[in-house]
Amino acid sequence: MMMHEVVNQAIKALILEAALTPKPGLVDAADNGAHTDMDFELFIDSALCFKESFEAYYQVGFEHASNPKYVFNKIRVIGLNAEETMFRTTKGVNTHKGANFSFGVVLSAIGACQAQQNTDLVSIIAYVMAMTKGLTEKELTSLKSYQTHGEHMYHQFGILGIRGEVEHGFPLIMHEALPYLKKNKHLPPRQRQLGVLLHLMAKNDDSNILKRGGMEALSYTQHEAKRILNRPPAQFEHELEVLNREFKSRNLSPGGSADLLALTLFFDMIETSL
């Protein structure tokens, strides 16, 4: 698979995540969830604005495959520029900041692995872990002051967030979401994807939920996701429509799980194509 094909699949995954409906508290094709500053059209514009940055992530990995730490340092700079492009596109709304970080790491790892001709998903995840080894120690546990959203979540709740998920090789995706997606290929695509989102919500210590409602909201979110997962998949849509109304009333939005859903869809697309 060529670079532009990989990047197109990444953008497609972001769009598929946004389009999946219904999602509790999240922007989808039906409504804006718990958000007043963004809608489905804005999410599409945001996803499309990352094309050049996504290509740059891949290219850095491809050109410097032998030095994963160097690659990671380079893509952090690219990531800041990508973030600025996103904010210009959305007029200051944070639509994909977390996804930008995750996809940046993964796309650079894919570039590196393609340069080394090791293009299976296990090799890609191993490269991600090599790039980010020690990240949480460096950027979270050793800090004396806390400025970013992720840093505050660690300080308040001890949550490692997306940094921990990346450093440990995306365990929620590799051990929960992706196996569910593969095991349920007999289901209609939307039911499968809603099931993936529920699996992620049930296990993810979602920093977006914590920010909006604290530990009580996180416990509620995980409990509700587990409850719905015990229903037949044909009932997911109705249950999530009801949960969406409740999340909107509580101002909750599982944005971290949505980002992991997009990555899961991306991994599923590329696993047989690389």
From TrEMBL:
* Taxonomy, superkingdom: Bacteria
Catalyzed reactions per annotation: 3'-dephospho-CoA + ATP = 2'-(5''-triphospho-alpha-D-ribosyl)-3'-dephospho-CoA + adenine
Q: What is its EC number?
A: 2.4.2.52
Q: Which GO terms describe its molecular function?
A: ATP binding; triphosphoribosyl-dephospho-CoA synthase activity
Q: Which GO terms describe its biological process?
A: prosthetic group biosynthetic process
Keywords (A to Z) from UniProt = ATP-binding, Nucleotide-binding, Transferase
Q: Is ATP-binding among this UniProt entry's keywords?
A: yes
| One of the Pfam families matching this protein, by short name | CitG
Does the keyword ATP-binding feature in the UniProt annotation? Answer: yes
Q: Which family does it belong to?
A: Belongs to the CitG/MdcB family.
Protein name per the record: Probable 2-(5''-triphosphoribosyl)-3'-dephosphocoenzyme-A synthase
